[in-house]
Each structure stands twice: as structure tokens, then as C-alpha cells.
Design brief:
binds zinc ion; 3-stranded antiparallel β-sheet; 6-stranded parallel β-sheet; alpha/beta
Length: 258
Amino acid sequence: MADTFRPGPEHRRVVFLTGAGLSARAGLPTFRGPDGLWAMHPSLERAMHAGALPASIPDLWRVWPSLYAQAARSGPTPGHRAIARMRGAVVTQNIDGLHQLAGSTDVAELHGDAGRAACLEDRCHWSAPLLPGEGERAEDHGVPAACPACGAPTRPDVVLFDEMLPADALERAQRLAREADLFVSVGTSGVVFPAAQLAPLARASGATTVLIDIAPEDPVGARARFDHVIVGDAHEVLPAWERVVNGVRSATFLDPFG
Ligand SMILES: [Zn+2]
């Protein structure tokens, strides 16, 4: 039977964990698959591993700012907009800035932000917004090639495979999961770190947990990990939720002057 869970007025602290599935509709490629990044940019698969640094920096400059610009041109999806209008906090594995463009203000970015540059040196905390351009040099994207703070090379602020997640974003994500009364995983399989850790953390802290996924990879496992599994398109499910949530909050039907 289809799960028809909807948020109610008892859900005051809603946290959304979002992954690539939410942005796919904005035309952003996923990593794998025939239309994925690896197929489009064969050199990028190697460049996405931390071990390829610093030689891979030109590849990273060539790809990430242009993907960020492409996301900005496509704009947020109906799912991003619904999340922003529900005023939920967001923990995202996406690097495209679309939650912020949709109007979400509380966003923890676990995998970085393709709209920013950072320093190659882990311990240096220099970071700056970039202006996406075309090319394989930092200067092509409006940022210096050498870190103004320490002189090390700069790079897109995107977390590569085998790199640590940013500690501040991870701490914030864990705090949001502990404080949530409704934790909703959207477009992410929920089996890899940190998604695998955040939903159980939220549940152990008393939250209701929900997975929204058009095709869950492991439906049986998902039903064990989440209180509700909604097999459906997030761009239909979330706007429907938003109408319920904002209908309740603004009491439209009871307002004689509305
Ligand atoms: Zn630096």
C-alpha cells in the first residue's frame, strides 16, 4: 500500500537531507551512468579523487564552476522551492547552491560549494566566492591562483573522494538531526555516509524519519531504516506537502478576510 504520510502541525523542526536526485531535474548530471559526469568528462573520474591533487586542479577548475553556472541558469526545482517555503533546515550533499537560490537560509553543505574557491592547504581556511567562467585556471573564474592567506594553490571548494567532510558542516548536520522532530531524506539512497548516520541519529533523538525516493535502491532496507518510505517524485510529493504545511499554518480556510 502506498505510504501517504504528510507533515502535521506537530512537526516544528523539519530537516531535509538532500542528494543528487533532487537536482537531477535542473539538468545536473549525476556521477555515473551514460549521461553522467564520468562519461562527459572521462578525465574527471580520476580528478575527483584527492590522490590526484594538485595535478588535477586544472580539471577541477574546468568542470565545477561551469556546472555551478549551469545549475544557476536552470534554477531551483519545484522540490527545492517547496523545501524553502516549508522553512525546513537543509543538510545537502549537493554543491550547486540551488537550496540557497530557492530561498533556504539554514543549509549545511556536506560536500562543499562549487560556487566558492578554497585553499589546497587543509589547515588554511581561506575561501571566497567565484565568478564562473570558462577555463582551467583560477583566474578564469575570478579568483587568484595563489591563496592570499598562505600562497598555496587555490581550488574549487568541492569535497573530493577520500577527502574529509568539512567538520563545521558535519557538526551542524548532526546537531540538526538531533534537534529534528521530522527528518526527511530526499533523492539520496540513505545507505552511504553521512546519510546512513544522520537518519538513525534523528530517529534515536525522537524524530519521525521519512525517505522520499522515486526508485529506492534497497526498498526492504529502507523500510527498516525509515518510519515512512514514499516511493514517488520529490517534485510532486514536496509541493503537495508544502500546500498542507502552509495551509495549516496560515489557516487560509478560516480567515474571513483572506
Ligand atoms: Zn591558504
